[in-house]
Each structure stands twice: as structure tokens, then as C-alpha cells.
Amino acid sequence: MAKQSWKPGNMLYPLPVVMVSTADKEGKDDIITVAWAGTVCTNPPMLSISVRPERFSYHMIRETGEFVVNLTTEELAFATDYCGVRSGRDVDKFKETGLTRQKADLVKAPMITESPVNIECRVREIKELGSHHMFIAEVVAVHADEKYMDEKKRFDLNRAKPIVYSHGEYLATGRKLGTFGYSVKKVKNKRKKR
Ligand SMILES: Cc1cc2nc3c(=O)[nH]c(=O)nc-3n(C[C@H](O)[C@H](O)[C@H](O)COP(=O)(O)O)c2cc1C
Fold first, then answer.
1. Which domain does 39 fall in, by range?
2. Which residue has the least CA distance to atom 17 on ligand 1?
3. Residue 155: partners with Cβ closer than 8 Å, 6 or more residues away
């Protein structure tokens, strides 16, 4: 089958889509939806988000060097989209979406209660790449909702029904295909019961 050659562009999909909560020094807060996000280091735990300087939330992150990454779910898909198409310049996104502010442990930005995982971050580096400035940040605290603990008290993120963003669409996840390393795991030679 022939392949079409396209001009260079962003086609690395699917991606996590997250709601990033921010606050300025006076305590005014905002939520921005971000898909240009990723894990960049295990130890120390670090992630990046890339934000256009014209976003209302941008100056908050730049000014305080702090933000919270809130994971999204099927239930939060509508709010996730809303926070990505309306600006904090014009609306209070917490009020409009009905999302709940929760005080974070270490950063001034609020966490979103309804999100299954909140990741508190402190900016370590800013890379002014072009249209987007990349904030490389250290994870300073993580909060996981106990609602999604399984019978063995292990956190099961799939129970929260996380979503991804792929080429303009929000998609559900959840069908498990294997676990880390399953491709090389030895299968136990169990005797068949008759
Ligand atoms: C699915 C989705 C992903 C987005 N990803 C990003 C992103 O990675 N970086 C960015 O600067 N804007 C991104 N946006 C756009 C902002 O979320 C949007 O402009 C938002 O209204 C900015 O809010 P603010 O002005 O209150 O900061 C995305 C929007 C959507 C719907």
C-alpha cells in the first residue's frame, strides 16, 4: 500500500491529555488543557508541558514556577475539552465546569479534586522552542484517589477510565493487552486438569 508523504508536523499520537491547574502570586487560578506533555526523567521524577506564551495560564506558570498536572478520565472529558477552548481571561473555569479546587501540599496552584491523580510540579528549566515554551519540571508530590485502589490496595488507574488525545479526538482506553515485560515472561508449564 502506498504511503502519502506529508509536510513536517506533529503526528506523535495518541498522547495523554491533562488539565494543568495554575495560580498567580495573588491567588487567581486557571486550568489549561495540555496535550503536549510527557514524562522526561525517572529519577528525579520529571515531566514537561509545552505552553504557548499567549495562553492566560502561561504567565502564572512563568511567574510562580509551579503547576499541577491533573489526569483526565471519561467522566472529565467534557471539562477537559472546555478548559482547552475557553480562556481564563474570560471565564472562571472551576465555576463553569463545576470542578472542585483542592489545596495542594507544596505548590500554590490548586489541584482538581475530581481528577484521579494530581501531580504537583516545580519548574526547573524553560526552553523557548518556538510557538511553545517547554516547562521542564520536577514532580514534588503525587496524590492518587483511594477510590481506585483494588482489593490488594494497589492503585488501578484503569478503574478511573483514563482518556487519550489522538489526532483531534478524545478516546477511551482500558482494554489491557499485557503487562510490562509480558513479551519475555516465561509461561508457567501448568498441567491441564482433566
Ligand atoms: C485537546 C487539547 C490540547 C491542547 N494542548 C495544548 C498544549 O499542549 N499547549 C498549549 O499551549 N495549548 C494547548 N491547548 C489549547 C489551550 O488549552 C487553550 O488555548 C486554552 O483555552 C488556554 O487557556 P488559558 O487561556 O486559560 O490559559 C489544547 C487544547 C485542547 C482542546
1. 15-172
2. 84
3. 144, 148, 149
